[in-house]
Amino acid sequence: MSTATANHGHGPSDGVTRRDMLLIATGAVGAVGVGTMVWPLISQMSPDASTLALSSTEIDISKIEPGQIVTVKWRGNPVFVRHRTPKEIKESEDTPLSELKDPQTDAQRVQKPEWLIVIGICTHLGCVPLGHDGPYDGWKCPCHGSVYDVSGRIRSGPAPLNLAVPTYAFLSDTKVKIG
Ligand code: FES
To answer: Ligand 1 centroid vs 147 CA: distance in angstroms?
Structure first.
């Protein structure tokens, strides 16, 4: 079974790790002092590899029209699947890295240019951003105004990082397995 993943400086598992760390860090704000007690518990609660292997989601992308975003649930989190138009792809590819707070090329974030797949959790404090919103027509987070572009890269606002790219693989032209 294919386990191909997007390969980039902030790789999929890397992205999930960063998000997890952000959530842990967020929780730690109110838990300073008990962190050393809590951490072993969190470690014990981590699912083993066989559990993780079961927690994948297969989605049929054949009905997602160009320009459309579909949200699916994966391991309890929203994942945005965006069928990008040629215009959106070109804008994403032409963006200079110097404009980006968390510099990544578009190619580092997608396996196929037409399909952007990102975890729909704002990297600021974990809200779910709204699609086709904000000046880049990417996503805008309703909580504190973070703006993401059509590649899910943070462009303005308090969020420090791009929307994370999950582990995923194209099983065929119409089917994607996330996780
Ligand atoms: S949680 Fe998204 S901007 Fe704060």
So the answer is: 9
CA-wise closest residue to 19 among 110, 154, 171, 176:
154
pLDDT tens, position by position, 21-31: 333 333 333 33
Task: For ligand 1, atom 3, name the residue with the nearest CA.
Answer: 144
Residues listed for the chain: 179
pLDDT tens, position by position, 117-174: 999 999 999 999 999 999 999 999 999 999 999 999 999 999 999 999 999 999 999 9
Cα 173 to middle of ligand 1, angstroms: 34
Report the nearest-CA residue for atom 1 of ligand 1.
125
pLDDT digits (tens, 9 = 90+) for 104-132: 999 999 999 999 999 999 999 999 999 99
pLDDT band at 94 (very low <50, low <70, confident <90, very high): very high
pTM of the model: 0.72
**Catalytic residue, candidates 10, 83, 132, 144:** 144
Q: Which residues approach ligand 1 with their CB closer than 6 A?
A: 122, 124-127, 141, 143-146, 157-159
Query: How distant, in Å, are the alpha carbons of 30, 91, 147, 151, 152 from that of 136?
Result: 34, 9, 8, 10, 10
The whole-angstrom separation of Cα 27 and Cα 23 is 6
